[in-house]
Structures are given as structure tokens and as C-alpha cells.
């Protein structure tokens, strides 16, 4: 990996992917992805199942390694550290600290089942950030209030509906004021009637200027709140641009075909 | 066209249901009579057996009672508990290390741990006990020490039990680790935990729920398996009663003394196991909450729904 000079540039994108390649054995999952997300931008990623959307998100916060190209988050190269004039693999501690500054919301919520909603929200602040219990819980209650769940603070995940769990998960993801939040199909595991409450919370976040990368099949929602839309197929960005263009007036046949398919069945199994 | 009216019997029942919803159900006696008869037979058989043993046998219950609380036997119980305790704690540590090796990505570590489990789980524990006791036969000195001095009946027993149980404990712990949804690790990493933190603070507390019942059973098996080491002359519970019976010839009485002690210890262990499992069951489901708390929450949920 060679690195461009980034110091002193005023408008450094929060996330920048350049020719990112990733394979699982013989399977080329990402085949040269280029993508930029600027501060305050909500970048939506759409595409068929298996096209590499989750893998791309997971590469951004090092849940997967990538084999080619570069992923920059702010001023650091994901997975690497500068040692003198060489790049070396990032130490686990460095990677952990970088992840703490990126929130992630999963398709299957992944709340910690042995913790209450409040403890889930404050888990990062308490166990990683070293925030005192009282201060963390005060902020935790604020966050739960923001996602409309302050009355459920003492509930365990098993006692919450899917939509409520995902709202708690969002509160947990934004608890440390991350510079970026990744959403991997946050509503795909939800019953249709619970999708709206999660989208409401996400809409609020875009209004507050949160920088987000969102993988979703909710095309109408993307059209409404996205700043940019990337259509990915077979590990490459086929088409990107503002939602009015990519969703309303797609240039590529593959994009058109995908959009028709998803519109007919928005809850297509991933 | 067939008519759409219901068969008369059904409509008659429906109208009766509507008229009177309190219906008197009459009991069916035939299944009750059968199970009742079966129970009577079992009670009879057990009763006859018990009578034969207690009244007909020449057992000296006073001897049982006398030795049950004798200092010698109590000391044997102590040794049994010591063997169990040390082996258990040791196997928890060694088993954790082995389990971590088995789930690691390093092939060498994986193979070594798997070979360990394969060997120690695949050979009878009695063979292992006798083997360690006779270690000096092929290894006269260990790091400059005389093997015969190191390997006493006690250390040989401890070594054999600890190494053997560790293989089983490894598998129990590994099963627990694998039972935790990988999404939990991802969530832990995503909030900035190091892999070590996520293992200790997120994975382990969840794995423990799967590990505890199995480890509890292992502990109970171990408690009883300690009796095997009497063959090398370790004076634990069975070794103690055996030596008493060889002097007094109260063979069956002494076996009863030992059995009663094992039953008592296992009962206590089962009780502790249940308490531990309850403690670590937090958040596992609705039963984890007290009734009062459940009611409070239902009230909250109720008012919340009204607001929305
Ligand atoms: N850990 C893995 N090992 C092997 N193949 C994987 C792994 N994770 C994902 N894949 C494969 O990579 C491809 C892309 O997966 P993914 O990024 O999850 O797609 P998407 O999120 O767009 O549905 C799929 O074919 C999937 O089977
Ligand atoms: Mg996916």
C-alpha cells in the first residue's frame, strides 16, 4: 500500500476508499471500490445480496482486513500504522481505539443480552472510554431519551421488541460521539411495522449532521434522506451520485434492474 | 348447490355454549386407574426390596452411624474434597488455556491442544492414575529431583485427576465459547474493546451460562471419580473406609458410610450449581426479573403505549 500525502488538506473526507480489493479465497468480494464520505454526509449503499456491501462496511472499521487499495478514515490508513518511513500492521490497541471512534449498527442488533438497555448504551463509555458511572449513565439516559426509550432503561434486550432493540443499538453506536456511524441493513431483520421507528431515529441523525454510511434496501428512505447513493454490484461501484439521480434516473441497466426488483419486494431476504 | 346450514348436532352445541359458558367436565377415569395401578406395583416392589435389606439383612446401622462421624472418615472426606477442589480449580485454568488454544487461529496451538484432549479423554482415568503413580519406573529423576519423592499417592492422584479433567473442561469451555453469537464479538470490537476485553467482558459472561451446567456435572463426576485413586493408596473417603473395613470386616457398612457421604456431597454440589446458574442467568429471559419488577414494567409499558 502506498499512501498519498494528506496533511494540511482542509476538506479531508471522513472516509475515503481507493481501489479497495478484498477476497475470501478465490471469491473476489470487493474489486476496486472507490468511495468518499464527507463530514455530515449520509452515504447510502445499495446493491444485491452478496455484492459485498457488508464486507465493505466491515473493512472500514477493521472487522475484516482488505488485500488491496487504501481505506482512509480521516488521517489514518485503516489497518496500518506509520513507523518511521514504513507502514506496519496496526497494533490491536490502535485498531481498538480507532473503532471506538466509529459507531456500528448491525442487522441483528447484537445488543449484549446480559446488560440492560442503559448498560448497553453506556458499555463503550464505561469499559473503553473510562467515563465515571454517574456521568456515563446521565449521558446514557439522554441517548435513550433521544431514541424514545428512556422508560425502558432497565429492560434487558430479551424484553424489548426488535425495533426497540435496534434503537438501543443506535444509541450505543452514537454514545461516544463517533466521527462516523456505519449501518448494515439496520431494518432488514425487523417486522415491517417496526421499520418506521428505526428509520425515524436514523432520519433524526441525518438532520443532526451525523456522518453515516448506510447499507439498506429501504429505497424510499434513501431517496428521502441520502446525500449520496452508491449502487454496488459484484464488488464494484456501478453507479453513484445524488439520490435524485441514482434512484430516480439510473444510468445503468443493472441499477435499473435492481431498483425494479427491490421496489417489488422491499423486504427481499439478504 | 348444497345448503349452507350447519349439521344440527354442531349448531345445537353452539347454541348451548352461547347460553351457558360454564360447562361441567367429567373426569375420564381409565388413564388414572392405569397409572395408579403402575404406581402401586412400583411401591410394592421397592417396599419388598427395602424390607429384605433392612429387616432381613444383618447390617449394623449403629456401626454406620458410628463411623459416619468418626474423625478418620471426616479426614477422608476432607481429602476427597481437597482432590476435587484442587483438580477443579486447576482444570478450570488449564482447560481455559487449552480451549483458547483450540479456538485460536494458530495451527500449532490448535493441534497441540487437540492432541492433549484426544489423549487424556481417550484413555481411562484409572490407567492414568496408576501411570502417574508409577512414573518413577521410567523417569527416575525429574529436573534433578528424585521422582519417588515427588510422586506420593497424593501428588500422583492430583496430577492424574487434574490432567484428565482438564481435557473435559477444555471441551466444556470451548463449547461455551462457540455458543456465543459471533455478532457479540463484533459489537464489542465496534465499541472499541480489544479482542481480550471482548473475550473477558462480553463473551465469557455469556459462555459461562453454557459452561456452568456442564462444568457442574463434570465436578460431580470428578467428586465421585476421586474414589478411583484409592487403588494407589490415597487415603480419601473410599480409601479410608476400605482400610477401616479391612480391620473391622464391616465391609458393607463402610461402603454405606462412603455412599452416604458421596450422596451428601453431591447434593450440596448440586445445590451450589443451581445457585450459580441462577446467578449467571441474568438477562436470559423474563424469569430473571422479580414478580414485582415485572408488574412495574408492565405498568410502564402500558402508559407508554397510551402516550404513543
Ligand atoms: N467470512 C467470509 N468468508 C467467506 N466468504 C464470505 C465471508 N463473508 C462474506 N463472504 C462472501 O462474500 C460475499 C459478499 O458478502 P457480503 O459483503 O456480506 O454481501 P452483502 O452484504 O452485499 O450481501 C458473499 O458471496 C459472501 O458469501
Ligand atoms: Mg450484508
From TrEMBL, chain A:
Q: State where the protein is found.
A: Cell membrane
Residues of the ABC transporter domain:
15-259
Sorted alphabetically, the keyword list is: Amino-acid transport, ATP-binding, Cell membrane, Membrane, Nucleotide-binding, Transport
Pfam families noted in UniProt: ABC_tran (PF00005)
Q: Name one GO molecular function term.
A: ATP binding
Where the protein is mainly located, per its record? membrane
A single GO cellular-component term from the record reads: plasma membrane
Q: How does it sit in the membrane?
A: Peripheral membrane protein
SUPFAM superfamilies referenced in this protein's UniProt entry, alphabetically: P-loop containing nucleoside triphosphate hydrolases
* PROSITE patterns membership: ABC_TRANSPORTER_1 (PS00211), ABC_TRANSPORTER_2 (PS50893)
The record's annotation in PANTHER family points to: AMINO ACID IMPORT ATP-BINDING PROTEIN, GLUTAMATE_ASPARTATE IMPORT ATP-BINDING PROTEIN GLTL
UniProt lists the family membership as follows: Belongs to the ABC transporter superfamily.
State the name under which the record lists this protein. ATP-binding protein
Which species? Nakamurella endophytica
Amino acid at each position: 500500500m502506498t499512501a498519498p500525502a494528506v496533511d494540511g488538506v482542509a476538506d479531508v473526507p471522513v472516509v475515503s476508499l481507493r481501489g479497495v480489493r478484498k477476497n475470501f479465497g478465490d471469491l473476489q468480494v470487493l474489486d476496486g471500490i472507490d468511495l468518499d464520505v464527507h463530514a455530515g454526509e449520509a452515504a447510502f449503499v445499495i446493491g444485491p445480496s452478496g455484492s459485498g456491501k457488508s464486507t465493505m462496511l466491515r473493512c472500514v472499521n477493521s472487522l475484516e482486513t482488505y488485500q488491496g487499495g487504501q481505506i482512509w478514515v480521516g488521517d489514518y490508513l485503516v489497518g496500518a500504522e506509520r513507523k518511521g518511513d514504513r507502514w506496519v500492521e496496526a497494533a490491536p490497541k490502535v485498531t481498538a481505539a480507532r473503532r471506538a471512534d466509529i459507531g456500528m449498527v448491525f442487522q441483528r442488533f447484537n445488543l449484549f443480552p446480559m446488560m440492560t438497555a442503559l448498560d448497553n448504551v453506556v458499555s463503550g463509555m464505561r469499559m473503553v472510554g473510562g467515563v465515571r458511572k454517574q456521568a456515563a449513565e446521565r449521558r446514557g439516559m439522554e441517548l435513550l431519551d433521544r431514541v424514545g426509550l428512556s422508560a425502558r432503561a432497565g429492560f434487558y434486550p430479551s424484553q424489548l421488541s426488535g425495533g426497540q432493540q435496534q434503537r438501543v443499538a443506535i444509541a450505543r453506536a452514537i454514545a461516544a460521539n463517533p466521527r462516523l456511524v456505519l449501518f448494515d441493513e439496520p431494518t432488514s431483520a425487523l417486522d415491517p411495522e417496526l421499520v418506521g421507528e428505526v428509520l425515524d431515529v436514523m432520519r433524526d441523525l441525518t438532520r443532526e449532521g451525523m456522518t453515516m454510511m448506510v447499507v439498506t434496501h429501504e429505497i424510499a428512505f434513501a431517496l428521502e434522506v441520502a446525500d449520496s447513493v452508491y449502487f454496488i454490484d459484484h464488488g464494484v461501484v456501478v453507479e453513484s451520485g445524488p439520490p435524485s439521480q441514482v434512484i430516480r434516473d439510473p444510468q445503468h441497466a443493472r441499477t435499473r434492474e435492481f431498483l425494479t426488483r427491490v421496489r417489488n419486494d422491499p423486504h427481499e431476504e439478504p | 348447490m348444497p345448503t349452507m346450514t350447519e349439521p344440527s348436532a354442531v349448531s345445537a352445541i353452539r347454541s348451548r355454549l352461547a347460553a351457558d359458558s360454564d360447562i361441567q367436565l367429567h373426569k375420564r377415569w381409565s388413564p388414572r386407574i392405569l397409572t395408579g395401578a403402575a404406581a402401586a406395583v412400583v411401591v410394592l416392589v421397592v417396599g419388598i426390596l427395602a424390607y429384605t435389606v433392612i429387616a432381613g439383612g444383618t447390617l449394623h446401622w449403629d456401626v454406620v452411624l458410628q463411623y459416619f462421624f468418626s474423625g478418620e472418615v471426616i479426614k477422608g472426606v476432607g481429602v476427597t474434597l481437597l482432590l476435587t477442589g484442587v483438580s477443579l480449580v486447576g482444570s478450570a485454568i488449564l482447560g481455559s488455556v487449552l480451549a483458547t488454544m483450540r479456538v485460536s487461529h494458530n495451527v500449532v496451538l490448535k493441534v497441540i491442544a487437540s492432541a492433549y484432549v484426544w489423549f487424556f479423554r481417550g484413555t481411562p482415568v484409572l490407567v492414568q492414575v496408576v501411570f502417574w503413580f508409577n512414573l518413577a519406573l521410567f523417569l527416575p529423576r525429574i529436573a534433578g529431583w528424585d521422582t519417588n519423592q515427588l510422586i506420593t499417592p497424593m501428588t500422583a492422584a492430583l496430577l492424574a485427576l487434574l490432567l484428565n479433567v482438564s481435557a473435559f473442561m477444555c471441551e466444556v469451555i470451548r463449547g461455551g465459547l462457540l455458543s456465543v453469537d459471533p455478532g457479540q464479538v463484533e459489537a464489542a470490537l465496534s465499541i472499541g474493546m480489544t479482542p481480550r476485553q471482548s473475550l473477558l467482558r462480553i463473551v465469557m459472561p455469556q459462555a459461562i451460562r453454557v459452561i456452568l451446567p456442564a462444568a457442574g456435572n463434570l465436578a460431580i463426576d470428578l467428586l465421585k471419580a476421586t474414589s478411583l485413586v484409592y487403588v494407589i493408596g490415597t487415603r480419601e473417603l473410599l480409601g479410608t473406609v476400605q482400610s477401616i473395613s479391612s480391620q473391622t470386616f464391616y465391609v458393607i457398612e463402610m461402603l454405606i458410610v462412603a455412599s452416604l457421604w458421596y450422596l451428601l456431597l453431591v447434593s450440596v454440589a448440586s445445590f451450589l450449581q443451581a445457585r450459580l446458574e441462577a446467578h449467571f442467568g441474568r438477562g436470559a429471559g423474563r424469569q430473571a426479573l422479580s414478580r414485582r419488577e415485572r408488574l412495574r414494567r408492565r405498568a410502564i409499558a402500558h402508559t407508554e403505549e397510551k402516550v404513543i
